[in-house]
Input
Amino acid sequence: MKPPVVIIGVGEMGGVFARGFLRLGHPVYPVTRDQNLQQAATDIPNPEAVLIAVGEKDLPGVLEQLPDRWKDKVILLQNELLPADFAHLPQATVISVWFEKKPGMDYKVIIPSPCFGPHCKLLGDALGKLDIPVKMLSGEDELLFELVLKNLYILTTNIAGLKTGGTVGELWSEHQDTARKVANEIITLQEQLTGTTFDRETLIQAMLAAFEGDPNHQCMGRSAPTRLERALNHAERENLELPGLMQLASEMH
Output
């Protein structure tokens, strides 16, 4: 029997990965938020991988409690992820997930999901069993670009969507000025947080390719106000002025 895969956080996204691992022949050991991670690591001391599938707001707490024996097995998939979040986990595998899974619906692929790290083949094989494409990255620079791109997509659509509503296709076709203003401020924030300068138009064109992958995707999720608040909190800590985002926040109150 193949070694087990531990999944911390058994929600919609974790469930998709679990199906892939099971079809690949790996037993899956789910860990819920109520379970003790140290005890789980005693029960499963040497898993093939440890997929952390909790939401981004819960990730820091999970990483703080992560057992040492699991730290070289970690796979991360959260939105709003940047290299500083996992700098203390040099063996981490990171996948930028470009498929969505809503309750009561099957998963829907937008574009291939880029992956970097030692467990990428495992992820590619597992998701391949579900016909979910994975794009293997060759280095940390590529990973950084892909993480910033996903953040740009998530934050631009959610934050601009607070004002415009509608779909990502409509956002670009009917509210491009708003979308570009928000996107440029998000890129400014990402550059500050990563200490890296990006080609803005390259990022925006890559975001548009994702728009085209699912033009009917709704802009604004339930977490949109929280994402705006979190972006402004990051900006405040970095002494960064984001007037467009601040204006949107003021219009919400």
Summary: The chain has a mean pLDDT of 96. The domain at 5-136 is CATH 3.40.50.720 (Rossmann fold). The first strand starts at residue 5 and ends at 8.
